[in-house]
Amino acid sequence: MGIIEQLIEGAREGVQERKRELPPAELEARLSARGEDRPFQEALTRPGLSLIAEFKRRSPSAGDIAPGADIAAQVAAYERGGAAALSVLTDQRHFGGSLEDLRAARTAAGLPIIRKDFIVDPYQLYEAAVNGADAVLLIVRALDDRELRALYEEARALDLDCLVEVHNAAELERALEVDAEVIGINNRDLDEQRVDIQTTFELMPDVPAGKTVVAESGISGREELMELDRVGVDAVLIGGALMTAADPELKTRELTGADETHEHLY
To answer: Which of these, 33, 61, 115, 156, is most buried using a 10 Å CB contact count?
Structure first.
């Protein structure tokens, strides 16, 4: 079993465990206490290149990144540094995350938040909505066509935006078949765990006008951001470079250009 299959299987097992602890009907009943709307896609389409700043303690490819990080302090630093949105890993087994992290991020910052996890069951969409997410990640590689469409439509019905993630032309075609509005191009091959930022440049010409495009993985510096901005990318999702920075606010400012007065990405 490859790493992606392990992650998907782990996600399915986790959902079944949580369903036993909190039955779907009880979870759905908690939707009425949901907080105010923070439009995720809208935050990515403002002028210039938007930064989705990610919080994660570890990953299968990198191992421990910042196991003791304080999520409230980290996301507040991201917000002060000019991030447009937050990404919070909620997978416990492989990323050290939790739904508690999602709630903590919601309290500590005013930015829209995407729940980043291996979404394989509608139950996870309700979890996301109840615990403070404004958007969810749907990985085309992890879902068949029926699952992808059903989860996409259910998420939209719950007023959750969807970042539909692809890695190659075939996956992009599948994402476009469900009329995904926000396309994430992951530079990481989830099977081989190799990262190549050229993936984004290769797929961009195939993305129809009007779609919001997010480049993911392997991005750490301003020169890369400027190149991505030039080819029409709307936003970048960055985690590792921010989580390992000695001063996450300063690193966020460096990436967003928040302190620049004469030079802008746009």
So the answer is: 115
